[in-house]
Q: What sequence folds into this?
């Protein structure tokens, strides 16, 4: 989960802006819990394609 669309119950601002201490603490907790949360969708897709390519090469090497 990302904090882009979350709204703080304390200050009613976006959590991603970190306007108050509650926002900043929640944003920090989200970033600590999910190491992939900071990656963009393009970066995640690139990682997925790279892993798929490595798996295909490993399969061909094992078959040969």
A:
């Amino acid at each position: 989960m990302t904090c882009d669309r979350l709204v703080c119950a304390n200050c009613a601002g976006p959590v991603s802006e970190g306007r108050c201490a509650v926002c900043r603490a929640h944003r920090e907790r989200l970033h600590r819990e999910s190491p992939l949360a900071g990656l963009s969708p393009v970066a995640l897709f690139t990682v997925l394609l790279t892993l798929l390519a490595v798996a295909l090469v490993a399969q061909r090497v094992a078959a040969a």
In short: The chain has a mean pLDDT of 85. The radius of gyration is 19 Å.
